[in-house]
């Protein structure tokens, strides 16, 4: 274990000295590699940043495996394309709060390495395990007991640092006063490893394949780690292994400011929305935006809302946060252009769920179903020889804001196959015929409005948890097809918020392979597809897209 080092950092010496409006002569005490003792005697190594003055202050903790030193001087964010404008100091860890903003406002910032990662103690790392939840609990209680803390502790952070908040808050540490879970999953199977039962063969395997060892990753020397990539390959169903990594969100009662991004579908969006919906907290807010996650997290506007929230629930100040409506959503009109709308809950009260019926003969989405049935096929895999996708469109005759859960109900069959993979996208075109792109996963800038996926053998619904607008898949058994068998499937299209003007067009795409091809993105290379897919519409086949139209402003 390294020895703790203490030094003083002056705000004026940092690269964000002029960003946050804090005094340049403000001094930060930086305790590097401060050990935090867990209940079993293991020490988690932390970086502690606190005001250089007498007194006790609230603390903000984060827990992650990536390494509390992983930003400067390497500055890994800069190596990732299209991240947007990022401003944070060299004291900031990967996806953590920036001490140069928080400490001058009289907060202590604590970044901790997970058990068995980097310099922390422990002999085994496991993702979102009960042990990790206990460690989060103990980290909070350790912070509250320090002589520089006033006993009030919050949690804040992005992505995995959000996931550990969901897990740790469900342990209900006595001194945890508030959390800001910013864009992170809580259902490892549904939110991350698989999309509608289809394994992610790129992003998931790349990130955990290269990081799960002590030579090129974050696993501590002499420690071991579960092979999550092997588990994904060997465990296609939601078995006990994956169930053990699901967070019981109903146990969370602490005040929460939850943030979801429409642009992180396939990793964060679903978890953030479900987190807000399922936690039992009396004081909870949801903010959903359509921009890039890191850029938005570190903007001054976002930081000020975060501070108002913590000022209220960690300092006891009436900061005005209680006056905010519970739900703040961005309705995207174009790339980085949108309108902020406020509501009392999510899904948004008085949402009008409208069925748009697929007409395979015209390629349209119609308000009324066709009287007679028809069937239309396309190649199940990418093809230059024949059509390999189905498209359906509707042009709106009035301004329409679509915010929330969409669902696609399809009647499908496969020629000469016992299963099929379906990839779905909702796109927007303006009245001039131009596609309107949005920020999408991994900072991709030519993204779609919303995405969905399903492997047909995973189509079994949990009837108790499903709603008319959100199918909830069980993933407990494989329901294989008989070649040529026509079956209904319900595809969850992940929550989103998009505005359409009169003359704008909504376009629905259904195909058998990834709709967006971007190197850093998730991919689904281990497909069950071959031959042709047939979509059945009209008559007894009520194939339709369900859209959530919210009340006008």
Describe the sheet with the most strands. 11 strands, mixed
| SS field, number of helical segments | 10
Query: What structural class should be given to the helix and strand makeup?
Result: alpha+beta
Shape: globular
For the secondary structure, the number of strands is 29
Q: N- to C-terminal separation?
A: 58 Å
Question: Residue-averaged pLDDT, rounded?
Answer: 95
Low-confidence stretches: none
Strand order of the largest sheet: 1-2-3-5-4-7-8-12-13-14-15
Strands, helices and their partners?
Layout: E1 5-10, E2 27-37, E3 43-51, E4 57-64, H1 99-102, E5 108-113, E6 124-125, H2 130-145, E7 149-158, H3 160-169, E8 176-182, H4 188-193, E9 194-195, E10 198-199, H5 203-211, E11 224-225, H6 228-234, H7 240-243, E12 256-261, H8 269-278, E13 284-289, H9 293-297, H10 300-313, E14 327-334, E15 337-343, E16 352-359, E17 364-366, E18 374-379, E19 389-395, E20 400-414, E21 421-429, E22 435-436, E23 438-440, E24 444-447, E25 450-455, E26 487-500, E27 505-511, E28 532-537, E29 544-549
Parallel strand pairs: 4-5, 4-7, 6-11, 7-8, 8-12, 12-13, 13-14
Antiparallel strand pairs: 1-2, 2-3, 3-5, 9-10, 14-15, 16-17, 16-29, 18-28, 19-27, 20-26, 20-28, 20-29, 21-22, 21-25, 21-27, 23-24
What would you note in describing this structure?
Helix content is 15%, strand content 34%. The chain has helices at residues 99-102, 130-145, 160-169, 188-193, 203-211, 228-234, 240-243, 269-278, 293-297, 300-313; strands spanning 5-10, 27-37, 43-51, 57-64, 108-113, 124-125, 149-158, 176-182, 194-195, 198-199, 224-225, 256-261, 284-289, 327-334, 337-343, 352-359, 364-366, 374-379, 389-395, 400-414, 421-429, 435-436, 438-440, 444-447, 450-455, 487-500, 505-511, 532-537, 544-549. The strands form six sheets. The protein has an eleven-stranded mixed sheet with strand order 1-2-3-5-4-7-8-12-13-14-15, sandwiched between helices. Strands 16, 17, 18, 20, 26, 28 and 29 form a seven-stranded antiparallel sheet that branches. Strands 19, 21, 22, 25 and 27 form a five-stranded antiparallel sheet that branches. Helix 1 links the parallel strand 4 and strand 5 (108-113). Helix 2 (130-145) crosses helix 3 (160-169). The protein is globular. The termini are far apart. The model has no long low-confidence stretch (mean pLDDT 95).
């Amino acid at each position: 274990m390294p020895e703790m080092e203490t030094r003083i950092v002056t705000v004026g010496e940092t690269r964000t000295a002029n960003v946050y409006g804090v005094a340049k002569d403000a001094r930060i005490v930086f305790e590097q590699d401060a050990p935090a003792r867990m209940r079993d005697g293991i020490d988690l190594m932390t970086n502690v940043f606190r005001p250089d003055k007498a007194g006790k202050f609230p603390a903000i903790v984060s827990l992650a495996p990536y390494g509390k030193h992983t930003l400067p001087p390497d500055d890994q964010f800069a190596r990732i394309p299209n991240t947007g404008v990022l401003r944070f100091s060299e004291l900031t860890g990967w996806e953590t709060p920036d001490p140069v903003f928080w400490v001058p406002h009289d907060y202590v910032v604590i970044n901790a390495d997970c058990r068995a990662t980097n310099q922390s103690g422990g002999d085994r790392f496991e993702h979102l395990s009960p042990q990790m939840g206990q460690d989060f609990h103990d980290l909070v209680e350790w912070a509250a007991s320090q002589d520089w803390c006033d006993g009030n502790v919050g949690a804040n952070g992005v992505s995995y640092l959000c996931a550990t908040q969901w897990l740790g808050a469900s342990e209900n540490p006595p001194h945890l006063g508030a959390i800001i879970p910013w864009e992170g999953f809580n259902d490892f199977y549904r939110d991350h490893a698989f999309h509608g039962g289809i394994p992610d063969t790129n992003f998931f395997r790349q990130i955990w394949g290269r990081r799960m060892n002590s030579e090129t990753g974050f696993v501590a020397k002499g420690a071991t780690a579960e092979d999550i990539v092997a588990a994904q390959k060997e465990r296609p169903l939601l078995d006990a292994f994956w169930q053990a990594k699901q967070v019981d969100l109903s146990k969370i009662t602490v005040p929460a400011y939850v943030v979801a991004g429409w642009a992180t579908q396939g990793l964060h969006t679903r978890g953030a929305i479900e987190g807000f919906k399922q936690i039992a907290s009396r004081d909870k807010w949801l903010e959903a935006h359509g921009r890039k996650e890191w850029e938005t997290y570190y903007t001054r506007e976002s930081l000020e809302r975060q501070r108002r929230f913590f000022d209220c629930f960690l300092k006891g100040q009436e900061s005005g946060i209680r006056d905010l409506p519970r739900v703040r959503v961005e309705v995207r009109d174009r790339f980085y252009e949108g309108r902020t709308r406020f509501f009392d809950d999510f899904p948004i009260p008085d949402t009008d769920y409208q069925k748009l019926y697929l007409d395979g003969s015209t390629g349209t989405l119609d308000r009324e179903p066709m009287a007679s049935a028809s069937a239309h096929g396309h190649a199940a895999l990418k093809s230059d020889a024949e059509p390999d996708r189905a498209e359906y469109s509707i042009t709106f005759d009035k301004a329409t804001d679509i915010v929330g859960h969409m669902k696609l109900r399809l009647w499908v069959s496969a020629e000469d196959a016992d299963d099929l993979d379906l990839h779905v996208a909702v796109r927007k075109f303006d009245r001039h015929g131009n596609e309107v792109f949005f920020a999408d996963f991994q900072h991709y800038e030519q993204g779609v409005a919303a995405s969905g996926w399903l492997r047909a053998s995973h189509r079994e619904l949990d009837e108790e948890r499903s709603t008319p607008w959100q199918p909830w898949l069980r993933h407990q058994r494989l329901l294989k097809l008989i070649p040529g068998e026509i079956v209904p499937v319900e595809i969850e299209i992940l929550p989103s918020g998009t505005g359409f003007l009169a003359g704008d067009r909504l376009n629905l795409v259904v195909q058998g392979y990834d709709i967006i091809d971007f190197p850093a993105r998730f991919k689904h290379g281990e497909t069950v597809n071959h031959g042709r897919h047939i979509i059945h519409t009209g008559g007894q086949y009520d194939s339709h897209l369900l859209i959530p139209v919210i009340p006008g402003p």
